[in-house]
Amino acid sequence: MVRPCTASLKVALAALMALAVGACAQFPERPETADTPPAAIPEDGQDASVIVTAARNTLGTPYRYGGDDPAGFDCSGLVRYTHARAGLSVPRTVARQQAVATPVDADALRPGDLVFFRLSGWKPSHVGIYVGQGRFIHAPSSGGQVRYDHLQERFWTRHFDSAGRFHDGACCDQRAAR
To answer: What topology does CATH give the domain 4-165?
Structure first.
């Protein structure tokens, strides 16, 4: 017979482990799709174009906690990887990415910008790459794959926190050696 206190402790530990494993989790499941037409990228948006192309090339890649390469990505690892393709060095975590990115108004989003979400608590815990037409690419959760989602979906609207930019010289002159 399991004692009630022990059972409650086991349930609490299981819940805590599920949260840790699914750091970028808690999203509604959607089928992955690569059918979104390319967004227009401004002529001066060479870095943005590279970032968006790199993000599209990762569609379908499995989620992997701590992943930042084509073997698997978590949300901030995907951002770091795609920006590196454009020669930009960005921090590893969602919170640091948000802290040092140049802020962007939500109504001024351009392809290649980052969209940050607060899933619980007061700090950002998820990030995606805006690709235009209200869509973004992200690595959603354990067991999932890199995919498109839409900012106007109820879930994302409710959890949207802010947007930022690293590309096109917007922040910190963080060019990596090419």
So the answer is: endopeptidase fold (from Nostoc punctiforme) (3.90.1720)
Buried/exposed 124-150: b ≥16 CB within 10 Å, e otherwise: bbbbbbbbbeebbbbbbbbebbbbbbe
Active site residue 126: yes
pLDDT in tens, 44-78: 468 999 999 999 999 999 999 999 999 999 999 99
- Which of these is catalytic: 24, 75, 83, 167? 75
171 is catalytic: no
Catalytic pick among 138, 159, 167, 171 = 138
Contact 83, 93 (CB under 8 A): no
CB 174 within 8 A of CB 166: yes
Q: Please answer whether residues 176 and 50 qualify as being in contact, where contact means their C-beta atoms are separated by less than 8 angstroms.
A: no
Which one from 24, 83, 126, 167 is the annotated catalytic residue? 126
- Is-catalytic flag, 75? yes
Per-domain residue ranges of the chain: 4-165
